[in-house]
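Proteins fold reproducibly. Next comes a concrete instance:

***
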Amino acid sequence: MSEIIASTYEIIEKIGSGGGGNVWLANHLRLGKKVVLKADKRKLTTHPELLRREVDILKELSHSYIPQVYDFFVEGETVYTVMDYIQGESLDKPLKRGERFSQPQVIKWAIQLLEALCYLHSPTHGDPPRGFVHSDIKPANLMRTPQGDICLIDFNIALALGEENVIGRSAGYASPEHYGLDFSSRDETATAGSGTSVYDKDTVTVTMYKEQSGSSSVKHIVPDVRSDIYSVGATLYHLLSGQRPSRDALQVTPLSREEFSPLVADIITKAMNPNPDLRYQTAEEMLYDFTHLRENDPRVKARKRRNMAAGIVLGVLFLGGAATAFVGLKRMQVSENNLKLAEYSRNALRDGNVEEAVDYAVEALSVHPGLFTPANAPEAQAALTDALGVYDLADGYKAHLEVTLPSEPLKIQLSPEGTRLAAVYAWQAAVYDTQTGEMLAEIPLEESALSDVMFIDEKQIVCAGKNGICGYDIEENREMWTGDAATQISISGDGKV
């Protein structure tokens, strides 16, 4: 027959045990859901009314990485805590199997753990508001869920009630304060002592006293949030290195800055400082450093400096390029305007208006060439000399004939013997006799600036025609054949392909 606890919880199986008691998986009979019962054999001395008030506060705790507390009761001489059942396995198990975790994975868990502690430590719970310390952070109390997140389990409720005799103290993870050692700045010598914790909205302080009873010291341990910080550092140390840190905080070997990120190693070293005054003073401080690893990384800072320097250089180059482009554009505009004026001068001279031709030609010439004014174009100089009739600029060659095209030519091709000329302009190819200037044929082309023409001989030409590549007989002014659409053309040496 199944064991029933408090007429409510049906024990399913034992899932953990320790010096302080056992942990059971149970079924909540009324709710019909699985819960965890932590059975603690140590006794409570807290007044029942205070106990119930504090338990009610703890039952209100709600956070993604903290299990929900349902109940807290005493049956017989056993103290029971009832919590959410978190599926998964605690991180101590893969560590015992020799598994190692990647640095990015541990950083993710560190952020989740610290977010949980920020919530747990915050003095906002209950009336008057107060915070809670966990007091026993270690891999065994971190559950890895099927989703790959962690959940902080088994936080010691009795600690919130001021029960100093039920505080967890796990070797390697517990802070020096857990052993009654004080390495604080106020006293560089380790002392055994007792303490009183005051934790409210405005302050968190721990004062250590040393009491003597006969010849022996009486140790009362009351850790504060900085003790949790030490345990977080020790837990992350184990998860990264695979080695549990030494119980003696003074003997802990820092993590390798070559094997791990120097910033991560520094964060963990600071968290595990034997002197609580030199650790992170709050979980928020440690969380900030983990969430700002990238921008604080010296390599990232160096990259930013390089990027800034490169940006300055590129900015200068851009401005220089823009200035050069502006100057070039202005010079191009001036050159184009001067060529137009030279053309106007030639047209006026052709119409017999010499005075107007001279005016246009003079306007096309720059008196003082400079940054924005290019040197005088030969066309402008020729227009002036033609208009004035001063001298002939030709050095032995003069125009034989002129042919006016409908638009600016895209390509000009001569036949093998030079008796024919093909001029390609906007979607047409015109074939001329080079001796007379007579147009022999006009062939429609593919509407592309790449449309090509090539002579096979003096009477045959191949074109990228409008309806496809075509062979054309110039003398008979007819298409000989057509093919598929094309633009560029190449002809074999014998003219057959």
Residues 158-163, 187-219 have pLDDT under 50 and may be disordered.
